[in-house]
Amino acid sequence: MSRFMTLPAADQSERVLDMQKPPLSLADKAYTVIEEMIVTLNLAPGTVFSEAELSRQIDIGRTPLREALQRLTAERLVVTMPRRGMMVTELNITEQLALLETRRVLDHLIATRAAKRATAKHRDELKTLAQALTSAAADKNTAEFMRLDRECDRVLEEASRNSFAAQACAPLHAHCRRFWYAYQNNGDLNQSAALHSALMTHVANDDPEGAGKASDTLMNYLEEFTRSALDLY
């Protein structure tokens, strides 16, 4: 398989965040594993692969794998290549900026609604995540930071109690994590952690106005980060 790398072992973020989530179905497990491989460039942009190869690589059967790939195709992280298999989509800065324009609106909605509707459990989780994210950035542990960032998004989406916004936003977050990972040397992990932590703190403190402003500030940073990637071309 072209450009395959070994999937990194789970690190301490999984121990920090034992959120007692329900067990994943095989299709959900396949989706989670493959999405992480794509986000962390273990399946690099432009990589062509077959279902059979990927099934052996992650040790998951073809049926749940196919379901996962259908989701990833719908989210535009992979595309079908007739008679060749499937390919991980390329990174595109113009598309990334359009994505952020959409994400800005959805993230603001999720942040303000989460601040109003979060349960005590959600608020405790967000406080824990804010601390863990800051620690991961201080340790320069990008892999852990990415897992924690994904968990932050999940808790905020769940706390917002708006399944339509959450469903629309989840794939946008995956694309953003991949873009960040690809151009991480052009950014500041500590600054990103501080902005994420500020957002989670406002939500945890039942502050919708502050959460909305923090969300917009984070999006401003991500747009600047994306535009800075143009300098690398």
Automatic annotation (TrEMBL):
Annotated InterPro entries: GntR_C, TF_FadR/GntR_C, Tscrpt_reg_HTH_GntR, WH-like_DNA-bd_sf, WH_DNA-bd_sf
One Pfam family cited in the UniProt record for this chain: GntR
UniProt entry keywords in alphabetical sequence: DNA-binding, Transcription, Transcription regulation
HTH gntR-type domain residues: 24-91
Any GO MF annotation of the entry: DNA binding
Claim: Amino-acid biosynthesis is one of the keywords in the record: no
Protein's name according to its UniProt entry: GntR family transcriptional regulator
